[in-house]
Amino acid sequence: MQTEKPLWIPSQHVIDEAPLTAFMEFCSQRFERKFEDIDEFHSWSVTESGDFWSGVWDFCGVVGSKGEVSLVNDDVMLDARFFPAATLNFAENLLRYSGEGDALVFRGEDKARNRMSWNELHALVSKLQQALKMAGVAQGDRVAAMMPNIPETVAFMLATASIGAVWSSCSPDFGEQGVLDRFGQIEPKLFIACDGYWYNGKLQNVGTKIAAVSATLGAPTIIVPYAGDAAEVVAKVKGSALLEGFIAPYQAKPVEYVQLPFAHPLYVLFSSGTTGVPKCIVHSAGGTLLQHLKEHQLHCSLKKEEKLFYFTTCGWMMWNWLVSGLAVGATLCLFDGSPFYPDGNVLFDYAADERFAVFGTSAKYIDTMRKSGLTPMITHDLSSLRMITSTGSPLSPEGFSFVYEGIKPDIHLASISGGTDIVSCFVLGNPLKPVWRGEIQGPGLGLAMDVWDDDGQPVRLEKGELVCTKAFPSMPIMFWNDADGAKYRAAYFDRFGNVWCHGDFAAWTAHDGLIIYGRSDATLNPGGVRIGTAEIYNQVEQMDEVVEALCIGQDWGDDVRVVLFVRLAPGLNLDEELAMRIRTKIRTGASPRHVPTKIISVSDIPRTKSGKIVELAVREMVHGLIVKNKEALANPEALDLYRNLAELQV
Questions:
Q1: What is the DSSP letter of 415?
Q2: Is it the case that residue 275 has pLDDT exceeding 70?
Q3: Is 544 exposed, middle or buried (0-12, 13-18, 19+ CB in 10 A)?
Q4: What is the pTM of this model?
C-alpha cells in the first residue's frame, strides 16, 4: 500500500550538494544536452550508454588510460565491450589517497578494535605485494581467503589486485565442504585464513578446518592472527606460515601497479549454492570499479573522509561493494561478529562513536530492530548519519516506517537490490527523489531496467520479471570452468534471448519506483496466479507473535497449495486462534489468494551465510528431494525440521 505523501523528500540543500547534481551539469556541458530532470537524465544514460559511462570515468577521476572508444557491439549484450582499449589497476584507484587520516576502522564485537591510516594501509599493501610476488603469485593467479572482515583482509585484496591476480573470499564460518566447493573450483595459488574469530561473544576455533581445507587445496597457507592462537594453528597446518613471517623480509616502499585491460578479472564471487555446487562468477576490474564509483558517488553521495559502514561478511558481495568506498577517499568502518552482541545497540554504538555518514545493513536486521523495541533515535546521537541502505531481501513497508519513526526522521533510506551476479545494484536509492513507503526509488543510472510479462512485453503497475535490456559494465566476464559460456547464457539469457533476466519478481509503482516481491523461482502459483513470497512476509511479520516466516508452494493434486512456516516468539504456541489471526492478517493485508492452506510452527528457519532464507531448499525437503549443497547454509540442521511433516501429508 502507498501512503499519500513520501516518507522523505530531499531538501534543496541535499539536492544542491549531491554529486549527482554536479554530474548532471557535467554531462550537460560535456555532451551539449539539457536535462529537465533526473528521469530524463536516466533515459539518456541508457540510450547513450557509451557517453554516460565515459562521463562516469572522467567525473569520478578514474586513474588509468581510457582509450578512444567507450563501447562496442552494444546491440548484443554478450558481445558488448566497454572501454576495449583502456588500461587501469583496481588497487591503484582504491589507494589514490594517502596521509595519517583513517582509511580503515575496525570493531570485532566487544573483543577487538583497530584503526589503520592511509599510510599504514599503503605500507602493509606494499609488503604483501612483495611477499605475494616472492611466493610466485602472478597475473591471473587466484588468491583465496577464508577471513573475517578485518583490515588485513582488505590489504590482502588490494595487494592481490595490484599485481593482476584474482581475489576470492568467504567468511570463516563456512564449513570445510562449503569452502572446498568454492575454492576447489578455482585452484588458488595461495590460501589465507585467520586463527579464529569471535561470534556472539564466543571464540570460534578454526584450526582443524583450515588444516583440512589447506591439505585438499594443496596451496601454501598464510595464517593471520586475530582471535585465536596463531602459532597453534600454524603447527596444525602443513606448509603454513604466520603473516608476520610472510612479510618480515620486506620494507615498505611505493606500491607498484601493473596496468591491465578494463575487462581483466578482479574477483571470483560465488552463487549461494543452495541448489548445487556454487557457480563461480568472474567480475572485471574496470566494470566493478566504474559501477561502484557510480553507486557510491552518484547514488549515495559519498564524499572524501566520510565514514562508510556496511554490515557484511567477506562471503557476501556487499564486502566487495564496501571496500570500493576507498576510491572516493571515504573511511571504511569494518565490523565482524554478531550485530546483537553484547546487545542490540552494538552497531548504533559504533555509528554514534565513529559518526557514520552511511549505514548499510539488511532488511532482516531492520525488522529485528523494529521488533526488539530499540529506538536508536532516542538512545544515540546519529546527527552525522544521512543515509541508510538495506538489502538482502525486500524491506517491508513496516521496515520503512520504523527507520523514520525509530532511527531518524530526516534520512535518505535506500532499499537496494542487485546481487552477486553483477557485484552491484540494478535498483537502488536516488538522492534527488523522494522515498515512498515500501518502494525502491528507481533503477541505477546507465541500467536499462524494466519489468516484463511472460510474453516478453513491458508491463507497468503489475508484476513480472525484472530484466535489463542493454549491456552494462559490471556484467560478469565469464563463469569459471565454463569454456563455451553455456552456463552463463543459461543463467541470464535463456528466458528472453538478448535480454538479461535477473530472476526477481517485481513491479513498477505509480511513483516510477519498484517493488521486489521475491525470487521468481520461489514465487507461488496457487490456481495459476503468481504470488511473491515477500507479499506474505510483509503481512505476517508485522505480528509481534511471529519472529520470522518462510513460505513455499507444495504440489498438491493438480495444483499448488501455499504452506507457511512460522517461527514464533519465545513461549508461544501455534493454536487455532493465532492461526486464524495470521490468516486474517494475510487476507486483509494482501488478498484471499495469499492465504496459506497450511500454517506450521517451526523452531528454526534455514538461511544462507549472508542471512537469506532458503525457500527452494525447504521446498525440496518438503517434496522429498535431495538438497544438494547444505554446506551453503548457516544452519543446515534446520532443514531436518521440514522432512516428512505429518501435517503436509493431508
A1: E
A2: no
A3: exposed
A4: 0.91
